[in-house]
Amino acid sequence: MLVVQKYGGTSVGDLDRIANVANRVAQTKKSGNRVVVVVSAMSGETNKLISYAEHFSKTPSNVEMDLLLSSGERVTSALLSIALQEMGFKARAMTGRQAGILTDEIHTSARIEEINTCALKKLLDDDTIIVVAGFQGISKDGNVTTLGRGGSDLTAVAIAGALEADLCEIYTDVDGVYTTDPRIEPKARKLEKISYDEMLELASMGAKVLQNRSVELAKKLDVNLVTRSSFNDNEGTLITKEENIMEKPVVSGIALDKNQARVSIVNCEDKPGIAAEFFGVLAEKNINVDMIVQTNSHDGKTDLDFTIPKNELESTKAALDGYKNITEAIEYDTDISKVSIVGVGMKSHTGVASSAFKALAKENINIKMISTSEIKISMVIDEKYSELAVRTLHEVYNLDK
Amino acid sequence: MLVVQKYGGTSVGDLDRIANVANRVAQTKKSGNRVVVVVSAMSGETNKLISYAEHFSKTPSNVEMDLLLSSGERVTSALLSIALQEMGFKARAMTGRQAGILTDEIHTSARIEEINTCALKKLLDDDTIIVVAGFQGISKDGNVTTLGRGGSDLTAVAIAGALEADLCEIYTDVDGVYTTDPRIEPKARKLEKISYDEMLELASMGAKVLQNRSVELAKKLDVNLVTRSSFNDNEGTLITKEENIMEKPVVSGIALDKNQARVSIVNCEDKPGIAAEFFGVLAEKNINVDMIVQTNSHDGKTDLDFTIPKNELESTKAALDGYKNITEAIEYDTDISKVSIVGVGMKSHTGVASSAFKALAKENINIKMISTSEIKISMVIDEKYSELAVRTLHEVYNLDK
């Protein structure tokens, strides 16, 4: 097998942990696999470098930041390669550039455009373990670029895709993807397999094991992703194509998001283009609108409800200030949370939603907004009921079994 | 003017010192110059990275070491560029690769083969201050290389040569080149100008402001080097072509080297090739032989004296062990030191040597070996007289005036 492994900042947080990672990689290699490893900077390094830059400027240039921040991953890759060589393996550390990772020119959040796999393939054919500095690439004009948050995951997924690797393992400090946040529901169970789409919907769950950009890229490139812990030998969770999952559970997990606020536009004039106007002004301010619900119009008036991230409440208020005259009121509610039921099996099963509504009603939890997609039902409830709702739903769908 | 400035590890040792360097660079730019800055890693960084590598291996691979060690300079260059931008200047940080520094493939001690100045020239024409990460380049096969000890000085000199800069200023924590080590002779005087050759001969002096590789390269590329301190505004010492020095002093400085040991091969059979045999076996072991003196042969026997670095005494003994049978004795003396008088004016002045011999004799200092070149007279004396000899010679040639 060709395996790409990615080890995050805590997994390579100090020299002993890098030695531990070397042992894991060695084990994978000894089992007869070809191995490409992608590493992050040692935890704390990137923040240290950012604080250095902020000593000089509150708005340091992105080109310089990329040069600065890309150095941490280089250090880790060199050290891990040295450790593997000392164990008797052929190993080679590579920067993003050397690994052939070509990006666009959007510094600090570049997108990978192409991977030139020549150098990688040559080393793999030579039985060499490759250790790539994650998070970075090179633009067409030769500048060092970085890929933004979760960038090392993206490096691993992109390389796995380009090399058509059998597996891309993302090592963090959590065991995998759970049916819900185990801190809320101790009966939460680790999932063996989950589809890309379910993973994307669950991303807002407490345990943020993967960023959506990486899952989306894995889906696009058809990469089998495994998320697992570098601190134990537990099997992780495989994130793969829906077709690869034989027994599709109706519900795979319950996600909770406490970082949303609700905006209610009450009795707004219902004329064509009015929603476009509201959301247009929010989009201009880069405010990320999530759930949107519009009720039926009566007497030429309509109610429009939506959620936004709590930390964008003030900028939302400012953005909507000019629209007070065409509505009866604009109300804001921050004491809410969003509970979501996610599962590909929903597509072919009826009654999933009604079971949820019934169960929550039984606990006297009032549902304030509902929004559904093919594989997700999201409900806005009073924040104080968040944990109770998660546990209730976890039980309704027998997720601990 | 086009000025290349290089700031060493102590000059960029912490964030405040980097800010100080930014002010110096800004001053140079404001005076109407075009400026390229070359920076080292913050002091301590390189040693930290080496200790990390040694945690994993006593003999880490050179390719990996280069990737590891080149990261420190990148951090400094990004930070200095950010500081300059914040002050309102156009600035750009560049790695060795981006600055067009092409080297051979001898990792950890690569030689610069070529500098592609396109990118540098374009930025200079755009009135941009360029901040280059020193000590590093890229080999033809795309790997990161480093230039070995004093590598950032080499980067600066090579760039100054390639761009035909008017001046290459090497900033350290000392003021310049002195007539002798001020710790030995407090009357030592800072030299205003000195020729490349004199600088090369004085390199063994206490204040090691520049490595010979950099001076040799400056001589080859005809680069006007200035060595000065980044901690004050004192004028430094200009190291330049002999032709540029109007008044050539007979003697420029007195150098002292306490790290030599003397080897005496007593009554050796004097046949052709015998010296070649001794020095051949030492060269094989990479033992650096310095002064060599052979006396006239009598009765088919000769004496052969030479000096070696003290720390290579044991390997020298081992190397010469097999030659005991063709000599009466091989003697080793570690309690010696080498005092040298350096000056381009010697070429045209007579009596320089005899003044030295007379002055030392007056102090009862016995001279054990003498070796002369066009611009240098070196004498081996008992180590205990080292400081007295330096002060005596400093006075004989009126170097404090």
Description:
- The structure is a homodimer of 401-residue chains.
- Chain A has a domain at 2-173: 3-Layer(aba) Sandwich (Carbamate kinase), CATH 3.40.1160.10.
- The first copy, chain A, is built from twelve helices and 20 strands.
- Chain A has helices spanning 15-30, 45-56, 62-69, 71-86, 118-125, 151-162, 196-202, 212-221, 274-284, 313-320, 352-362, 386-396, and strands at residues 2-7, 34-39, 91-94, 101-103, 112-115, 129-133, 136-139, 144-146, 167-172, 193-195, 225-229, 237-240, 253-257, 260-269, 292-294, 301-309, 329-333, 336-342, 367-373, 376-382.
- The first copy, chain A, is globular.
- Chains A and B meet through helix 1, helix 2, helix 3 and helix 4 of A and helix 1, helix 2, helix 3 and helix 4 of B.
CATH superfamily of the domain at 2-173 in chain A: Acetylglutamate kinase-like
CATH class of the domain at 2-173 in chain A: Alpha Beta
Largest interface pair: A-B, 39 and 39 residues
**Proportion of residues in β-strands of chain A:** 25-35%
Oligomerization state: homodimer
Derived structural class of chain A: alpha/beta
Count of individual beta strands of chain A: 20
Q: What's the total helix number of chain A?
A: 12
Envelope shape of chain A? globular
Our measurement of the CA-to-CA distance between the termini of chain A, rounded to an integer number of angstroms, reads: 32 Å
Average the pLDDT over all residues of chain A and give the rounded result.
92
The CATH architecture designation of the domain at 2-173 in chain A is 3-Layer(aba) Sandwich
Low-confidence stretches of chain A: none
The largest sheet of chain A, given as strand count, sense and whether it forms a barrel, is: 8 strands, mixed
Amount of helix of chain A: 25-40%
